[in-house]
Amino acid sequence: RVTAMAQTRDGSIWLGCNDMLHQFDRDHQHARSLSTRAGMTQMLLASSDGSLWAATGDGLYLLRPAARTLLRIAVRGSGLPLQGAVHVLAEAPDRSIWVGTVQGLFRIAAGEHDLVPVRSPKGAGLGNPSVAGLLFDRQNILWVDTGVAGLHRMSRWDGREASFERISERHGIVNRPFGANLFDDGRGRIWTQIGVY
Fold it and tell me: Which pTM was predicted?
């Protein structure tokens, strides 16, 4: 069962199937399989540096260009790999990777491979820590969907802390997600499989 797909810069197609990643070359021939042993692959992201990121049911994995093995990503300062489900990934304009998990929002600086929790000032954080959807729109604004508190828009990022507007809450829509599949159109609207803002 294929649960995620991505194409890396070298032209390879990657498929996520349960706890396996399968690579197909430009000629559509199976090239290799890699095991995460981490449950279902939730999402694959081919980043602009040619790397492949795999969000899984238990942690985040990275395959750098020309690497033969997957690297399990750890939380900075703990030395321990991230535990639990990783739902969604997004690459920012500065090439950092933003990571939405059941434990909150994390960021990996460009060229690095350790997770840093995204902190927020009191009263300006996400309404719920379980991040289901991420989108950098055409104006490079980050939108976040959470499982319970719905849609959020990042209003400030100083490199250490992020402030968020609680869009769903402001419109009286509470206790449900806005929709994990976030997409923006040319008119600035934010769409999901559930609705539009």
Answer: 0.94
